[in-house]
Design a protein that fits this description.
CATH topology of the largest domain: Heat Shock Protein 90
Strand content: 15-25%
CATH superfamily of the largest domain: Histidine kinase-like ATPase, C-terminal domain
CATH architecture of the largest domain: 2-Layer Sandwich
Number of domains: 3
Order of helices and strands: HHEEHEEEHHHEHHEEHEEHEE
Largest sheet: 5 strands, antiparallel
Mean pLDDT: 78
CATH class of the largest domain: Alpha Beta
Number of strands: 12
Helix content: 55-70%
Low-confidence stretches: 37-41
Strand order of the largest sheet: 2-1-5-4-3
Length: 450
């Protein structure tokens, strides 16, 4: 799996980006507050004015400009005014620029705070030439901190905040990951101990996306394992129950054959051979149904033409129809292609035809139709036998169900159950109803291949 496509990666990325933004914003705020309220180095405005005057007298406007750049690096914007005019202009806020002429005309030292965290100083100074000048300075702090010191303080604060935020995010993610992992570990241990009803539950689904999905997949796997084990036990119980009667009959027949004369024993042995054949067929059907209900892991799917498959099944049923003088009328239209297992679909069609022929009276008829319409392929088989009581129709596809008409024909109650399961694993359905005029109509419906 590509880590870039996982929601866990993007969650971590987003949270770390947000943490870095918080560190930058909070770090800057904390640093400014720290510099303003904890440092004890106050700005000496008188000394600053004398320094500016000295720079101007020694170097003129260029010397003052160089001095201004040096002060700006330390967080102070300042210049000298003479006769109300800036010797080297600096940028001032509009409200300060409007009121500055009044403050300069007052010829007093001023220190005020026109905006939050902004200090304005007007300081009088007299040059060596006797000219009166005034320092006008703006500072974001009431204390002078060198630029390098401010950078060091900012880096230290951001480093401390980064560690704090990374620790908090790491703890939060570790907590979110540990809970579902521990829940899955407990569930796995219980499953290994034989408690197949164990589930991870809601606790495992409260984790990040991938872990929540893993917990759901684990629960789905546990449900599947429990169902398969329960199914295997049920199949074993059903098989043992269904085999008990024919095995008892076989034992009785062999016992009678052993005590009989040779001529009579031959008849008993022939009957025993028929019982063995019935046992073989029933066991084969049980195993087929068990494999179908097990979910057919790895079933190969390929395009299958139901129409062609139905023609083959009709041809195979020709021997039985001739022997019992039955008429098999096939109405097979254009090809009906579905995606699935040809072997399983052939078995389903054989079971449909076999069930219809089994309950048809001698000399009767069976109709088979295959058609493709509205995105579905349908196989319809109808006999003219006794039909099924309406109350028994919903149970017709249950394994080992034999209705009130069962004594009229041999069987184990597995044929239609196999048809229904084959339909389900192919995304279709099987249904049955009593046809008008008598007889049973069974319909197999499957989705057509796209």
């Amino acid at each position: 799996m590509n880590p870039l496509k996982t929601s866990l990666f993007w969650r971590l990325l987003v949270w770390f980006v947000l943490a870095n933004l918080a560190v930058l914003l909070l770090g800057g705020y904390v640093t400014r507050s720290f510099i303003e309220y904890t440092t004890a180095v106050e700005i000496n405005w008188t000394a600053l004015a004398e320094s500016a005057n000295e720079a101007y007298e020694n170097g003129g406007a260029d010397g003052l400009d160089a001095w201004i750049r040096d002060q700006r690096r330390d967080g102070v914007d300042a210049t000298l005014y003479e006769n109300g005019t800036a010797l080297v202009p600096i940028r001032l806020p509009g409200s300060v620029r409007d009121q500055l002429p009044q403050w300069l005309a007052a010829r007093h030292d001023l220190l005020m705070q026109p905006y939050p965290r902004i200090y304005l100083a007007v300081q009088q100074v007299t040059g060596a030439d006797g000219h009166a000048r005034q320092l006008v300075a703006l500072s974001r702090t009431h204390s002078r901190i060198p630029l390098q010191t401010r950078s060091q303080i900012l880096l230290a604060v951001q480093f401390a905040l980064s560690l704090l935020f990374i620790a908090l995010i790491g703890w939060w993610f570790a907590r979110g990951v540990a809970r579902p992992v521990e829940a899955m570990q407990r569930a796995a241990r219980h499953m290994a101990a034989g408690e197949l009803s164990t589930r991870v539950g809601p606790e495992g689904r409260r984790g990040p996306g991938e872990l929540s999905q893993l917990a759901q997949d684990f629960d789905a796997m546990a449900v599947r394992i429990e169902a398969l084990v329960a199914h295997d036990r049920a199949v074993l119980q059903d098989l043992s129950h269904e085999l008990r009667s024919p095995l008892a009959r076989l034992q009785l027949i062999l016992d009678l054959a052993r005590r009989s004369e040779a001529e009579q024993a031959a008849a008993y042995f022939a009957q025993a051979e028929r019982e063995i054949g019935r046992l073989d067929r029933m066991t084969g059907e049980m195993l087929a149904l068990s494999r179908l209900e097990g979910g057919l892991p790895g079933m190969e799917r390929e395009p299958v033409d139901l129409a062609a498959l139905a023609r083959e099944c009709v041809a195979k049923a020709g021997i039985e129809t001739s022997a019992r003088q039955l008429r098999l009328n096939a109405a097979i239209e254009a090809p009906a292609w579905v995606l699935g297992s040809g072997q399983l679909l052939e078995r389903a069609l054989d079971n449909l035809l076999g069930n219809a022929l089994k309950y048809s009276p001698e000399g009767g008829s069976v109709e088979l139709a295959v058609r493709a319409e509205h995105g579905r392929a349908e196989v319809i088989v109808r006999d003219h036998g006794p039909g099924v009581p309406d109350a028994e129709l919903p149970q017709l596809f249950r394994p080992f169900f034999r209705g009130s008409n069962a004594p009229k024909a041999e069987g184990h109650g597995l044929g239609l159950a196999i048809v229904n399961r084959v339909a389900q694993v192919h995304g279709g359905e099987a249904s049955a109803r009593n046809a008008e005029g008598g007889g049973l109509e069974v319909r197999l419906s499957l989705p057509l291949q796209a």
